[in-house]
Specification:
Strand order of the largest sheet: 1-2-5
Strand content: 15-25%
Structural class: alpha+beta
Order of helices and strands: HEEEEEHHH
Shape: elongated
Largest sheet: 3 strands, mixed
Number of helices: 4
Distance between the termini: 49 Å
Helix content: 10-25%
Length: 145
Amino acid sequence: SKHVSKPVKVVWMREDDIKSGYFKPMTGQFLSGIVDSNNDIVTWRHRVASEEASRMQDPGGATLKKGSPILSMFSSEKTSYNFANRLIEHCEQFTGVRLAAVRGVGATPHYFGSESFIDEVAQELEIDGLQYRLHLLRNSPKALA
């Protein structure tokens, strides 16, 4: 660009692009729950199998919070849904592949898994997904807004 005094478009081949870059961690998610007679979810279990993206950069484990990996479990326990009994588990994986955190919202895989499960429960109950969410969030004015 400096040599020709104008912008130069650079397009990387896939092989060149991933040769020096980091892969992003994948997750496997298992969700289950129990619904009572009022269609409220009274038990919630969210099990995540993933590798901590910062493991190779931080082998000492400074990225752990209460024994749970900060990056790979980010926001997995935060939810506007007020379930009476909640269990969030992390099943640690190790592939040895050089990883880096996903750039952007780190909670995306957990929210996708949780909201997909809410959709599945609503479908099983034969309730519209939005209406079911409004039902579950009825005691959370901020979330309803």
